[in-house]
Amino acid sequence: MSQPVITLQQISYLGPVLVIVLTVLVLLMTDVICRLRPSRQGLSLLTGFGVALGGSIVALVYSIFLWHRLTVLKVGKLAELFPVNGPPRSVSAMETSPVWSSGTLVVDYFAVFVCLLVCGVLILVCFNFKPYLRINKLHRSELFPLLLLSASGMMLLSMSRDLLSTFISIEIVSLPLYVLCGLNERSRANQESSLKYFLLGAFGSGFFIYGASLVYGAVGHMNYAAIAYFAKHSLESSSILMIGLALVGAGLAFKLALVPFHAWVPDVYQGAPTPVTAFMAAGVKLAVFAAALRLVLEAFPLMDLSFWRGSISLLAALSMVVGNLLALHQMSAKRLLAYSAIAHTGYIAVGLASGLSTSATSILIYLVGYALAGLGAFTLISYLAPDGQDDIYLDEMHELSKRAPVSALAFAILMLSMAGFPLTLGFVGKLMVFSDAWRAGLYGLVIFAVLNSVISVYYYLRFILAMYMQPKAPGAAELVLKRMPGTYILTGIITVVLTLLLGVIPHMLIAWAQSCQLAGL
User: Fold this and answer.
1) How confident is the model at residue 75 (pLDDT cuts 50, 70, 90)?
2) Which domain holds residue 358?
3) 3-class SS at 364?
């Protein structure tokens, strides 16, 4: 009798994903039961929030347990699921012995670390959604299931070691977000945001799946180990493989919003509901960069560096300069953070271009810092935004430090972290990413990135100066301050305190992230 491909014990390694999916099913069934009562319109906001938050916390706890479980394993310290093995068919004539073996999904320290971060992002976004939906009267019973479903795709994306599973995971992430961006059917901006994200997201998915089909035609497999094995033998003679990998890279660049695949970001970020924007900025970037790291460090290491390092460096440089230059004169806080997100994607891509074994650690640290700053900033935007506006503008923030000193201080700290000021986690992330690129010999790219980082200080300081040093012009608009909901306060405290604490004492986070070397290396 043949051995089963996957056992119950192996399935247990997918626990965080399964917990989130089970929570989605509970939410859907609860909604159906609620609708059976004539007086109920479906799942209430409080019930949806409670179940979603509970499921996210359970998934977080399971991820911690899974980390411990990997630590006590005697051999391997990883679990490979749905394994495939043997030489790629296209080179089977060269070597007939099975020289590689790999799982379609792999659960290692890197994947578990990403799951922990996704759960953390999910919990904070749930905190933000509760008051936002209540204030704007936007609750829909399908909202929390869609949010959790997208998060499950992010977790799977960090585990994927196969082009097909990576594509499916990306779609699980993206499809719920297309709907969430258009959450408010009364808002034209929401509807435009949803449509633009869907159309350009589908375009990027088309690039990815077409490239994956070309890779399959050249290699006979879509597994990263097979791609690396084939590239070791005959990359130069396989133009189909090179074109396929280039298209796959373009598809990921769409999802990451690297220039010139960035056009959707400003309108989508500004038009989407602010908690959705926060989830996209923190969660999607984290998950897709995790997938890009696996592709580059596990499928590309045996390839000629000139094949992929030059392309990634060019995209990084374009993203930094375009994102920063277009952010210089933005008056909208959400649009400023959108262009800033493009620039930050360029900075992170600098670490990706280095291709070192330590790149995963550096990029994870950077992503943690960016996620904390982004979640905190969008939380404050949700709180400060006037009713019906869902955004704040520069001329509304004058003298905010006098009227809301705590909020102004928190916003300033988060902006300084994004700018990369010392004593913040944003500085630690940039330093580590740029150091990796310097060790890899990318001196020109590092100098260019540092200069762009200096340029970015200007537009972050514009908002800080407006809050602290610029008087309000006569007749100018003024923010109407409301009582801050408790969940906003909690999110703000968590993001600001961790940004400063991990910026001053980053050693524990760095040590934790250093154990997240990809299992394939």
Assistant:
1) very low
2) 8-514
3) helix
